[in-house]
Amino acid sequence: MDLKTLKKKLQKIKKMGFIKTHRSGDTGIGKTLEDLLGIQENNIPLPDIGEIAELKSYRKNAKSMMTLFTLEPLPKGGDRDRLLLDNFGYSKRDNQRSKELHSTLSSKRYNNQNLKLSVERDKIRVKGKGKRINIFWDMGSVKNKFDKKLPALVHVLADTKIIEGVEHFHFNEAYLLEDFDFELFKKRVRVDDIVVDFRMYYCPNRSVRNHGTGFRVKIKKLDDCFSKKVKLI
Questions:
Q1: Which of the two residues, 62 and 209, has the higher pLDDT score?
Q2: Mean pLDDT rounded to a whole number for the chain
């Protein structure tokens, strides 16, 4: 569909008022909006912008963070993960893992594993308290990830209420976000609106299992990573 058609569909959906969820649970909002727009996956071909726009829908009262993308830092390879596990990992007695690292990193302070983020001119660096490590994301890799994962974003917000025990959504606000801006992205990292999650551990045979390093953003600050914002409804 083109932008004109998308806007008309969203305006029609807005006029419908509160709509009963099409699926119970957290994913109900996305499923309901996809069904109403007549799409089967969470992206929309938009020839106006020459891109596929990913569809993201969120409850206005949500205080959680959303995952932007997963991206491993540099340098590449298992040695990087072993360095993190050996120096900052921890062990639990109720599993078979000698070391694991499930850790959220922010910029303002070191976390319980003595890790934090540091924003530089063209890098976002991992810092370890009392340890010298060289682990980072550069501007090019973050921008490439954004361009592939989120070249454009249709961000739809909804009020929610429970009617007879069932969640209902009123989709009444939507924006088209384009042109990822690394400088804006860095600002969100500096003030902890964007954080990084490490999710890795040693298997019993000492191989490393990494479930993907995720960048998460506060839902209400998602718009601030893009330099172009067009209101759709």
A1: 209
A2: 90
